[in-house]
């Protein structure tokens, strides 16, 4: 019995540490590049803008939360602001999402919202893009650094065939 307890404690600790890691993730540049193309069908033309933006907004950290001067907060990989696009503690905002859901390691919902923001307001919505990525010379060369050419979406959505 005693031996069982001695075994259980370290195992539980490891389990809890594991859970914490699942909640938050810090990407590497090329890792995120691959995930955005393969799993989320990002257009390669603008990918270096997205990567540059995320690097300057969240340092590729999915759990980053930044309090802003105007009492709002920016959430997650894309630092989506709680005043307009999501709502704290409940679903809301223009993306109809709970802001807290943007700070876990599931980036699918973040991406849907970020793409909507980009379509409506352009990349200039993000201060990090405006300051550091607006000049194309500052964008990372993903073709060289991350072998962008070799990447393609894992699942081709119906009707998308022939475009890629
Ligand atoms: C990611 O951001 C969270 C919240 O700000 C912080 O606690 C964590 O240390 C960061 N992770 C890394 C690897 O920087
Ligand atoms: C508050 O600040 C954030 C980040 O700077 C900005 O995106 C948002 O539009 C501001 N909201 C208001 C109501 O001023």
Task: Give your account of this protein's structure.
The radius of gyration is 19 Å and the shape is globular. The chain has six helices and three strands, in the order αααβββααα. Strand 2 and strand 3 form a beta hairpin. The chain has one domain: Lysozyme, CATH 1.10.530. The model has no long low-confidence stretch (mean pLDDT 90). A three-stranded antiparallel sheet has the order 1-2-3. Helix 2 crosses helix 3. With 164 residues, it is mainly alpha-helical. Bound molecules: 2-acetamido-2-deoxy-beta-D-glucopyranose (NAG) (2 copies). One 2-acetamido-2-deoxy-beta-D-glucopyranose binds next to loops. The site of one 2-acetamido-2-deoxy-beta-D-glucopyranose (NAG) has 6 residues, from loops. Its EC number is 3.2.1.17. It holds the Pfam family Lys.
Order of strands across the widest beta sheet? 1-2-3
- CATH class descriptor: Mainly Alpha
CATH architecture: Orthogonal Bundle
Order of helices and strands: HHHEEEHHH
GO molecular function: lysozyme activity
Family: Belongs to the glycosyl hydrolase 22 family.
EC number: 3.2.1.17
Organism: Drosophila ananassae (Fruit fly)
């Amino acid at each position: 019995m005693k031996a069982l307890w001695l075994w259980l404690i370290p195992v539980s600790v490891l389990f809890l540490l594991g859970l914490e890691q699942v909640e938050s993730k810090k990407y590497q540049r090329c890792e995120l590049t691959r995930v955005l193309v393969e799993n989320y069908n990002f257009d390669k033309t603008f990918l270096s803008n997205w990567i540059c933006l995320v690097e300057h907004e969240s340092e590729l950290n999915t759990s980053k939360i930044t309090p802003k001067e105007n009492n709002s907060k920016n959430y997650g990989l894309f630092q989506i602001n709680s005043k307009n696009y999501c709502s704290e503690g409940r679903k809301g905002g223009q993306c109809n999402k709970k802001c807290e859901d943007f700070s876990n390691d599931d980036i699918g919902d973040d991406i849907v919202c970020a793409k909507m923001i980009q379509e409506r307001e352009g990349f200039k919505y993000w201060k990090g893009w405006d300051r550091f990525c607006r000049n194309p010379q500052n964008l990372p060369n993903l073709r060289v650094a991350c072998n962008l050419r070799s990447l393609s979406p894992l699942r081709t959505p119906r009707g998308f065939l022939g475009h890629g």
